[in-house]
Design brief:
By secondary structure, the protein is mainly alpha-helical. The chain contains five helices and no strands. α2 packs parallel to α5 and α3 packs antiparallel against α5. The radius of gyration is 27 Å and the shape is flat.
């Protein structure tokens, strides 16, 4: 019995050591990402009118997505428009990078497209994922309704055969 107790204690110490190492690696691994995010956040002048319009556009699109959740055809149009927006993001980044002096105080549009990827494509993809999840729920609901109707129909047929 003492051997078992010492083996369990040894195993628990080993597990505690592994958890401690994992948590310290996660903390040190997430710190640079957090620092980069904070640097990105503070590098943007959020009071610029075009940025406020861009964020308002995304909020409006999200509200449209939520309120039209029962209209599958409209949601599919929104889904395709969102994906088209992501598809043309590279061309949009190049165009806006060439003309940034006309509407912005600084050039946010680097050749790698990080800014536009985060504030344009990322938000459009988030909305597209919301639409996709809603569509999957709608399809599941439709399948359940279909199956219930099929079972009612079979029950009606079996009742008619018995009569």
């Amino acid at each position: 019995m003492e051997e078992l107790r010492s083996a369990v204690d040894e195993h628990m110490e080993l597990m505690a050591d592994l958890v401690q190492k994992l948590s310290s690696e996660l903390r040190s691994g997430l710190r640079p990402a957090y620092d980069n995010f904070i640097g990105f956040y503070y590098a943007i002048h959020w009071k610029e009118p075009w940025l406020m319009c861009l964020l308002s556009f995304h909020v409006f699109l999200l509200i449209m997505t939520i309120f039209s959740r029962k209209n599958t055809n409209f949601q599919m149009c929104l889904f395709l428009l969102a994906l088209l927006g992501v598809y043309f993001a590279e061309s949009l980044n190049k165009f806006l990078g060439d003309n940034w002096k006309k509407f912005a105080t600084q050039n946010y549009f680097d050749p790698s497209g990080l800014f536009l990827s985060v504030l344009w494509s990322g938000l459009l993809l988030t909305i597209a994922i919301i639409i996709l999840i809603n569509t999957l729920f709608s399809m599941c609901y439709l399948i359940v309704r279909w199956k219930k109707a099929e079972l009612r129909h079979r029950a009606r047929l079996s009742r008619n055969k018995q009569d």
